[in-house]
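User: I'm writing a tutorial on reading structure tokens. Could you give me a worked example: one chain, its sequence, then its tokens, then a sentence or two explaining what the tokens reveal?
Assistant: Sure. Here is the example chain.
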Amino acid sequence: MSRAVEHFVVTAPARANLIGNPSDLYGGAVLGCAVPCRARVELRAAERLEVATGGDTIGIATRGDLRMQGDRFDVARAALAAQPELPRAQIAYASEIPFGSGLAGSTALLVALLRALAAWRGETPSLYELAERSRHTDRELMGVACGWVDHYLCAFGGLRYVDLRAKDADKAVAGEPFATVEDLAPHAAELPFLLAFTGVSHH
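And here are its predicted structure tokens:
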């Protein structure tokens, strides 16, 4: 397949839920914001599919190579498993988000991966669609018992009110009804708060 652009760099932010977490699991609403550290994904055309992070590289030849293995490549395996076809590309990723800090680092990485892979296919999903795809991939392919708000905040960024009253926690299909997302940044010129990470990683 010929593409005008064969090199993409995509990032997604960490997030902090300020009020309402974890009510997104049962139709609640959450006030949250992006945090100024990001996950970064770089995708470029190649002869074969390779994924690299932290100085290590793996090759992926078939969908059988996308089984979860409990390592740091699982998030990339899940993102690739969600694609209709495997790209011939080199995918490299890294993150500024402290591991296990509760700032949705794996979600930010998943959002960035899915956005890069969509761009590779020539797609531009809406931020709503991107958030829904990410949550579906996290839940159905990685087996994470998760809600929606992390995926919405990592996709939208900014300071947001996210209303999930129409969402069903057990619904497996990604898609409508989308959450209601309101941008609160115009109403808060400054949001002073201290976000501290002790260095203790949590599962």
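What the tokens reveal: Helices lie at 74-81, 105-120, 127-141, 149-156. The mean pLDDT is 92.
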